[in-house]
Design goal:
Blueprint lengths: L12 H14 L12 H8 L3 H13 L3 E3 L5 E3 L9 H20 L3 H16 L7
Antiparallel strand pairs: 1-2
């Protein structure tokens, strides 16, 4: 499971984690009935406090995407209420491919995001269109 937490972001870490897990369920990377990593091990892996991971899991439970089963762990529900359109699924796949390519190139998340922002900015700048 590949999750990135941007410590410099204004978005709280629990929200970054929640959003990424939700996307993984929506895109099918996390399957129904699949067990999530234990809170403490994921917290250690991501360099977060266990309470931060627990909050993300708890919010996903409130959304009906995950269910806690006590000592057995936290699991994706049988039928998650999250459904992506075809375009959204393709976008999620493209984002995953972009992240994998950035990893392959050995660039960090900030450099990859900067390149993406630069690309979008140049595409929307009418002075740069060759029309």
């Amino acid at each position: 499971m590949r999750i990135w937490i941007d410590e410099s972001s204004r978005i709280p870490p629990y929200e970054q984690l929640r959003a990424q897990l939700r996307l993984m369920v929506s895109s099918g990377r996390l399957k129904p009935r699949e067990r999530l990593p234990p809170i403490r091990s994921l917290a250690t892996e991501l360099g977060l406090a266990p309470g931060t991971v627990a909050r993300a899991y708890r919010e996903l439970e409130w959304e009906g995407i995950m269910e806690g089963r006590g000592r057995a762990g936290t699991f994706v529900v049988d039928e998650p209420p999250v459904a992506f359109s075809v375009v959204e699924r393709q976008l999620a796949d493209a984002a995953e491919a972009f992240a994998a390519e950035a990893d392959r190139l050995g660039v960090g998340q900030q450099a990859a995001l900067s390149a993406l922002e630069t690309t979008f900015a140049s595409r929307s700048d009418p002075d740069l269109d060759s029309g």
